Amino acid sequence: MDQANGFPEFQDLAINRQDLVKNVLSDRESGDHYDAFMASVHDLNPVYSVPGDGDDMKIEKTDAQWQQELTDEQYHVCRQKGTERPFSGEYVHFDGQGAYSCVCCGQVLFESTTKFDAGCGWPSFWEVVDKEAVKYIEDKSLGMDRIEVVCSACEAHLGHVFPDGPEPTGLRYCMNSVALEFKQED
Predict the structure, then answer these.
(1) Number of folded domains in the chain?
(2) Do the Cβ atoms of 155 and 172 come closer than 8 Å?
């Protein structure tokens, strides 16, 4: 398969994005699209739920340190896997040019050029800035099957990724504004 057509997050893997999206879409008709998507992410992502990957870059702090450094809302979302209310976040309708970083550690996660209005109430992106910037974790909380997205450096909860985004990836990274920090382009 042509690697150039693969998910940017998984460029070093031999996966054809169009075939994956086609399979996800056909599974959507049968109601199994999230199961298929999660299985695909699990099979294709080398950092998916693999403890110890990237430990040399990992930021570790105590719970007390995170509570001191973050606002109550940031702590709730990033460290306790909470979610801000839809349409309440600072970056939902924000159009600045620059990069979005993890509010906990400053690791760059998304570029403004990949941001789009998904109408879901949270800032949405179709691509991470670097495949190593995030990790994916299967999330079966709240009676749903989802893929959680966490910062690879500090494991802050950022949001979830869904297979209903725009081209060229077909992905929608649905992030919490409070988990992000925007840095204006120079």
Answers:
(1) 1
(2) no
Residues with Cβ within 8 Å of 65's Cβ and at least 6 positions away in sequence, in order, are none
Which among 135, 165, 168, 149 has a CA at the least distance from the CA of 16?
A: 168
Q: In this structure, what token pair is assigned to residue 141?
A: 């909380």
CATH of the domain at 58: 2.170.150.20
Q: Is 174 a catalytic residue?
A: yes
Residue 4 lies in a domain: no
Catalytic annotation, pick one of 78, 102, 151, 174? 174
In a domain, 2, yes or no: no
Looking up tokens 């976040």, which residue turns up? Answer: 89
Residue-level pLDDT at 56: 53
Q: Averaged in consecutive runs of 10 residues, what is the pLDDT profile of the chain (186 residues)?
A: 37 38 45 53 41 59 94 97 95 96 96 96 96 94 91 97 95 97 91
